[in-house]
Write a structure and sequence with these properties.
Four copies of one chain form a homotetramer. Chain A has 96 residues and is an alpha+beta fold. Chain A contains three helices and four strands, in the order αββαββα. In chain A, strand 1 and strand 2 (28-33) form a beta hairpin. In chain A, helix 2 (37-54) runs antiparallel to helix 3 (81-91). The longest helix of chain A has 18 residues, at 37-54. The first copy, chain A, is globular. Chain B binds chain C through residues 37-38, 41, 44-45, 48, 51-52, 57-64, and chain C through 37-38, 41, 44-45, 48, 51-52, 57-64. Strand 3 of chain B pairs antiparallel with strand 3 of chain C.
């Protein structure tokens, strides 16, 4: 399934749809802090399942209780509908 | 670290400490139902970390949104302090 | 996506396609023994991703280094093409 | 359990013990490339278990088939025995 890059207007509107995410021209970024590694990794595992299921994989960084997720569509060099869809699914997970 | 089997009296008192678990002479059993597999697996991943960290591993069964955990101390043939400690840690996880 | 139950003839032929699996009329079963829980859970995590991605989830049991997988299509009450596909994907994972 | 920073001499000798890792004064770094995300995440899950079990957590980055691990002992501001021990355990995992 091919995805389309968002238009400049759509990117401008993203903060209303995804207020928890930082939006740049090329990616969506969000950070989490959990109580400990066990909670952080439970969250990472859920994101892994969502990502594989959508065949669209985030860049993530973790150390102990911190999880940083960056979403971009590498093939297209920017933010596409796939990134928005994955961000919405991640937002729907139970989180601290 | 060696563990000790609980006494008959201690097993009798378990339902007060662990009301969510079914107690038999040889094991502690608890079931969970989540909204979907993503949530169930996030929970399983957290239990996996707790178990490895304590070097005490539950028997678990999963299909889709269901997770069944059975705790016993195989070496001793019954419920030991390790099982109680792991059950308490599992109870402390965020759950549905 | 709807799946179809295998015919009696197709079930009869399964042991040639999936020699590692035990075949009954209603399910496919396979067991693994790993060196330790870390390896077993790495394997379980991979199966979790495959399953969510196919939206077809196995029943699995684990205790320490043992992993037991049972594949069936609950909606149809037997073995379908989905089970065969998932079994083939699991076979393709690196395993002990 | 308190850990000790490695001495300058011990850090100098690290490449012989851990030839697969890049060594700086403050951290150990290693990268992996897998066939796909499923394999990469199976590997990450195993490292998560090792890390929680040692109560010493790496910084890791992942996108699709790539896994980057950085080991350092934040409390001490450099490489300690804990980092070496975790690196050795990671090396012992089955890898691509």
């Amino acid at each position: 399934m091919t995805a389309k890059l968002l238009s400049a207007k759509e990117i401008e509107d993203l903060p209303q749809i995804l207020p928890e995410w930082n939006v740049s021209k090329t990616c969506l970024v969000r950070q989490w802090r959990f109580s400990n590694f066990v909670e952080a990794f439970g969250f990472i595992s859920q994101i892994a399942l969502l990502a594989e299921s959508m065949n669209h994989h985030p860049e993530f960084k973790n150390v102990y209780n911190r999880v940083d997720i960056e979403l971009t569509t590498h093939d297209l060099g920017g933010i596409s509908e796939k990134d928005v869809k994955l961000a919405v699914s991640i937002n729907a997970l139970k989180q601290e």
